[in-house]
């Protein structure tokens, strides 16, 4: 294989007849590369923006989750307290009702 037969070869030597590059093709190539560079840059910006948005959303959901867990703990404590109050009341109430289930013993 001759060294001047492959234009991708780093040792490529162009023939004298092709020493004048076609400026129209070169211009199109430059424009295409520039357009591709801009498109790639926009794509990276969109990807970064999406990652930032997901990160903020994740942080917000973590805070909401923590708040809901605190609320669950408070509601469970309130349920224990009210169950204890009901149990105490049932033991002294003259009108025993079958509609109330037996409650667990108070821990207060």
TrEMBL record:
<keyword id="KW-0010">Activator</keyword>
<keyword id="KW-0238">DNA-binding</keyword>
<keyword id="KW-0804">Transcription</keyword>
<keyword id="KW-0805">Transcription regulation</keyword>
<keyword id="KW-0678">Repressor</keyword>
<dbReference type="InterPro" id="IPR000837">
    <property type="entry name" value="AP-1"/>
</dbReference>
<protein>
    <recommendedName>
        <fullName>Basic leucine zipper transcriptional factor ATF-like</fullName>
    </recommendedName>
</protein>
<keyword id="KW-0539">Nucleus</keyword>
<dbReference type="GO" id="GO:0005634">
    <property type="term" value="C:nucleus"/>
</dbReference>
<feature type="domain" description="BZIP">
    <location>
        <begin position="26"/>
        <end position="89"/>
    </location>
</feature>
<comment type="similarity">
    <text>Belongs to the bZIP family.</text>
</comment>
<dbReference type="InterPro" id="IPR004827">
    <property type="entry name" value="bZIP"/>
</dbReference>
<dbReference type="GO" id="GO:0000981">
    <property type="term" value="F:DNA-binding transcription factor activity, RNA polymerase II-specific"/>
</dbReference>
<dbReference type="GO" id="GO:0005737">
    <property type="term" value="C:cytoplasm"/>
</dbReference>
<keyword id="KW-0221">Differentiation</keyword>
<dbReference type="InterPro" id="IPR046347">
    <property type="entry name" value="bZIP_sf"/>
</dbReference>
<feature type="region of interest" description="Disordered">
    <location>
        <begin position="1"/>
        <end position="54"/>
    </location>
</feature>
<dbReference type="Pfam" id="PF00170">
    <property type="entry name" value="bZIP_1"/>
</dbReference>
<dbReference type="GO" id="GO:0000978">
    <property type="term" value="F:RNA polymerase II cis-regulatory region sequence-specific DNA binding"/>
</dbReference>
<comment type="function">
    <text>AP-1 family transcription factor that controls the differentiation of lineage-specific cells in the immune system: specifically mediates the differentiation of T-helper 17 cells (Th17), follicular T-helper cells (TfH), CD8(+) dendritic cells and class-switch recombination (CSR) in B-cells.</text>
</comment>
<keyword id="KW-0963">Cytoplasm</keyword>
<dbReference type="GO" id="GO:0030154">
    <property type="term" value="P:cell differentiation"/>
</dbReference>
């Amino acid at each position: 294989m001759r060294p001047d037969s492959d234009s991708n070869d780093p040792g490529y030597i162009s023939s004298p007849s092709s020493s004048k590059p076609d400026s129209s093709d070169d211009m199109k190539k430059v424009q295409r590369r520039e357009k591709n560079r801009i498109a790639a840059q926009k794509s990276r910006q969109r990807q970064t923006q999406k990652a930032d948005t997901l990160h903020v959303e994740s942080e917000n959901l973590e805070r909401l989750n923590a708040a809901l867990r605190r609320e669950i703990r408070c509601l469970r404590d309130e349920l224990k307290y009210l169950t204890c109050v009901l149990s105490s009341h049932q033991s002294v109430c003259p009108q025993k009702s079958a509609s109330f289930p037996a409650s667990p013993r108070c821990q207060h």
